[in-house]
Protein 1
Amino acid sequence: MSKIFAVANQKGGVGKTTTCVNLAASLVANKRRVLLIDLDPQGNATMGSGVDKSDLQLSSYDVLASLLPPRKAIVATNSGFDLMPANGDLSAAEVELLEMDGRESRLRDALAQISADYDYIIIDCPPSLNMLTVNALCAAGGVIIPMQCEYYALEGLSALVDTITQIQQAANPTLKIEGILRTMYDPRNSLTSDVSDQLNEYFGERLYRTCIPRNVRLAEAPSFGKPALEYDRNSKGAIAYLALAGEITRRHGNPQKSSGSRPIAEAV
C-alpha cells in the first residue's frame, strides 16, 4: 500500500510545486515508484514535469468531476514518475464539487483503485483551502507543509493546522502532519533561526532535518520542464531534495517495489 502525501499550504510562493516535482524525482532516484497528482488549476506541476498542460486529453478534473478511472488520466514523465496532470479545467471542479454527492471523498475513492501500484503518491494542492485541497486532505495519510521561515508564515501555518484537525474529526481520522519542510532557507538570516527554533519546539520530530536552500537552479528547472535533479544534479537544490527523499524513506522504512513491475502509465 502506498504512502499518500498532500503537499499543502494556503500561502502561495512557499515552494509547494517545487517540492512536489523534485521530491517525486528524488524518490524515483531512490528506487521508489511514484505518482504525482497535480490538483492545482494553474498546472505548474504538470508543466514542471515536462507535460504541456494546453495539450491534455484527460486530467485530474475528469477523475474528480466525471469519476473517470484514474488510470486513464495518468501519463508517464521523462523523469521516471507517473503524473495525473491538470490545467485550467480544474477550476470548474471547485464549483461543481459543491453540488456533488461524496464531494470530499472523490479523490480518495479514485486512489483506492491504484494505491497498491505505487510506493508514494504525492498531491500538489492549490494555494487555498478550497474543495480541491479538502479532497487531497481526505485522500492523504499525511500532510507535508513547505514553509519559509518568516513571521507571517507562522500565522498561516496555524490556520492550516486547524484545517487539518477539522478534516481529522470530520472525514479522515488517520490524517496527520507528516512533516514541516523549511524552504528558501537562508541560515545567515537571524529571523530564519528564530522561526526554526519555534518550529522545532512545537513540532519536534515532525520538522524535517533537511532544509531546502534558496537556489538558482531550482528556480530555473521548471522553465525547462525538468526537476532540478535532471536539470543540474550537482546543484544545492537537487542535493537537498535527494536528502529529503532519503529522510522520508528512512522514516517509513518503505521497501522498494520489484524492478520487474511496471508503472501504471507504461502498463496501459
Protein 2
Amino acid sequence: MTAKLYDLTELQKESRMGTMGTLDTARDIRRIDLSNFEARKAEIADQLWDAAVDVGFFQLVNHGIRPEEIQDAFAMAERFFALPESVKRQYPHQKALNVGWESRAQVRPSTGTPDQKESYQITRPYMAELWPTEAELPGFQATMLAFERKSWAVGMQVLSCFAHKLGFADDFFTRAHDPEQADYQSTLRLLHYYAIPPEVQDKLDLWRAGAHTDFDCLTLLYQRQGQGGLEVCPGKEMDAQAWTPIPPDGDAITCNIGDMLMRWSDDRLPSNFHRVRNPQPGEYMGPRYSLAFFAQANRSAVIEGPARKYPAITAGDYLKQRIAANFKAY
C-alpha cells in the first residue's frame, strides 16, 4: 500500500472557495474488543491491523477504563472550561511545549479560519505553573493525571499490537513513549467546541475543526453521546471529498493512526484526514466536549521503519517538520 503525507495547500484553496464536500460515504469503522487482551493478543493484533490499513480509524470497546472514570474526566474538563476567562488566562498555551490553555487560536490550513473551540493541553514534564490551583478547581490535577495514565496504558496495548505486526519487539513503542523520561511528549487535550448562537445558525461558514491529519503515532478520542460532528476521509479519496461520520459512543474509544506511525510503518499504516463539522440546521447546536490523548514518541526516540524507506529522524525533529509543512504562512 502506498500512502501520502500532504501539506494542505490544495485543500485550503477548496475550503476557501466553498467546495469542501459534504458527501456522506458509508465505511466500516470497526469495533475492536480488547477484553482478555493477553490471551487474545494475536487475534486483536490482526483485527487492529486490518482496520487501520483499511480506514485508519477504529473503535475500542472493553478497553478497561471504567465509564465512571471517563465521566469524571469529562466533568472536570467541563468545570475547567467554565472557569472565568481571567482564570484560564493564567495558564496560557506554550506553543513550543504544547501545554496550557488557548481559545480560537488554531487556524487550520484546510479552512484558513480559527477552529471554533478552546482547549487545554496536558503534557506531563512541562506543566509547572500551568495547573489550576486546588482552590480554583479541587481535584483537577489528580483526576486528569490519572486519566492520562490510563489512556497511555490503552494506547500502549494498541501500539504493542502494531509493533508485533511490524516485526518489532512488543514493547518497542512502549519504550519509545516512556512517561518517566524528561522528553516525554504524549499529550492529553481537553476540548470545548463552542455552542452555535441562534443568530448565526443559518450562516455556518466556520468549522469546529478543519480537515487535518494528526502528527502523532496514535490518537485516542473520547466523545460524549449526542455531541457529534467527527468525520473521516481516507487520503486516497480526498479528491472526491467523501466523508464518513463517526457518531459518538460513550462506551467506545475512537482511535486513528497519526503521521508519526505512518512513517514508522514505512507507509503501511495510513494517517487519514478527519474534521469536526459544525452542526447542520435541525441538529444539536449546543457545546461539544471531547478528550483526546495523543501518543507521541519521546523527543529523542528515533523513527525508522523496518524497511528503512525514509531516513532515521528523531520524534522531536519529525514533529517540527510536520508542523512547518502544515502551518506555513499564507
Protein 3
Amino acid sequence: MGIEFIKYHGLGNDFILIDNRTSAEPCLTPEQAVKWCDRHFGIGADGVIFALPDQDGHDYTMRIFNSDGSEPEMCGNGIRCLAKFLVDLEAADANVSSESLLPRSYKIHTLAGVMVPKIEANGQVTVDMGQPHLLAAEIPTTLAAADQKVIAQPLEVAGQTWDVTCVSMGNPHCITFVEDVAAIALETIGPKFEHHAVFPQRTNTEFIEVVRRDYLKMRVWERGAGITLACGTGACAVLVAGVLNGICDRRATIELPGGPLEIEWSELDQRVYMTGPAEMVFAGQSSI
C-alpha cells in the first residue's frame, strides 16, 4: 500500500502534501523525500510538506523537506499550499465542500515560529509572516557585527562585487538589486551565493529589478532547491530590503517567474503580510 499525497503549487513553486496528522514525525525520511521530488524518476516537486498534529495549542505543525533532503525553517508558498490542503482535508472529514468552510485561518507551528495563514472566500491565501529579523546574528551572516544590520553591504561573489541586504523571515535571505534581472545567470551565480562563507547556514538569494516603487521583478535561487518559479519568504524579504534601502513602498507587487505576490510590511505592527494563490494539481499514491 502506497502513501497518499496531493500535489499543490503556489505560483509554480510546487509541493507534495502528505496527511501526517496521526504521527508527530514525518512519515518519509529526507532520503525518501529526495526520490519523491525527482522530476524524472519520482513525482516531481520543490519539496515535500507534512501536515502534522498540533503542538502547544496550535492547530497544526508544518515540516518540510526540500528537494535535496535539507529541512528549511519555513516556506511562504508552501504554507499557502498547506493551508489549502488543510481546508480540503477538513472538508473531506466533514463530507462538505471546501468552499463552505471559507474563510478559514490556522495557527501553524513551524521551525520559524507560529505562522497564521488565512484562506479567503475567493481562494487567495493571506499569511501573517511575522516581523522580519534584521541583525546579522539573526540571519545569520558574518557580513557585519552580530548586533548590526546588513544593508547595501559589498560582497564579492564570482569576481564581482554586489551590494547586498540581508533579511531573515525565519530563514536567511540575501537580496541584491540589479538593472536587469533577466540578465542574471542564476544557475551559475546562485550556488555561489548560497554556499558563500559569510552565510554559515547557507542562504536564499534574490535578484531584484525595481520597475516602480510598488512593483518589483524578482528571480530567486532557493537554498536546498535551486531555481524555483516563486519564493514566498523571499518576496517578503525583498520588500523589507527595498524599504530599508529607500527604493520601494511598504506595500508592493512582487512579480516572480510564476506570477505575482502582494506583500505589505505594516507600519502599524511591523509584521509582513503575504497574499497569493495556492492550487491543487493532482492526487495519488506513491510507494517510492
